[in-house]
């Protein structure tokens, strides 16, 4: 975490660390499919502040995402 927190490229810093999306996109693309990923920030690991209602927040954004992708 120390390396990530100190990283800076032209004034930009890493604020989210997510590893699974690249794999999902790769697996979907192999047979010609498309994939989507939605990240919900539930914790600030740098300050050790965590959401008090992660389930409620996730449910809210899942509903929004499903509304968006079913319109396509």
Count of beta strands? 2
Global Rg: 16 Å
Supply the number of structural domains: 2
Share of helical residues: 40-55%
Mean pLDDT: 87
Strand order of the largest sheet: 1-2
Structural class: mainly alpha
Largest sheet descriptor: 2 strands, antiparallel
Low-confidence stretches: none
Q: What is the molecular shape? A: flat
Q: Tally the helices.
A: 3
Helix-strand pattern: HHEEH
Strand content: 5-15%
Distance N terminus to C terminus? 38 Å
Layout of helices and strands, plus pairs?
Layout: H1 2-6, H2 20-29, E1 43-44, E2 49-50, H3 54-71
Antiparallel strand pairs: 1-2
Polypeptide structure, described:
- By secondary structure, the chain is mainly alpha-helical.
- It folds into two domains: about 1-35, no CATH class; about 40-70, no CATH class.
- It has three helices and two strands.
- It has a two-stranded antiparallel sheet with strand order 1-2.
- Strand 1 (about 45) and strand 2 form a beta hairpin.
- It is flat and about 40 Å long.
- It starts with a helix and ends with a helix.
Question: Main attributes?
Answer:
single chain; mainly alpha; 2 domains; flat
Concise overview:
The protein has helices at 2-6, 20-29, 54-71; strands at residues 43-44, 49-50. With 72 residues, it is mostly helical. The protein has a two-stranded antiparallel sheet.
């Amino acid at each position: 975490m120390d390396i990530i927190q100190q990283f800076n490229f032209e004034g930009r810093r890493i604020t989210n660390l997510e590893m699974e999306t690249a794999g999902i996109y790769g697996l979907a693309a192999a047979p010609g499919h498309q994939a989507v990923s939605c990240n919900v920030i539930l914790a600030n690991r740098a300050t050790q502040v965590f959401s008090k209602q992660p389930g409620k927040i996730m449910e809210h954004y899942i509903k929004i995402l499903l509304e968006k992708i079913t319109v396509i």
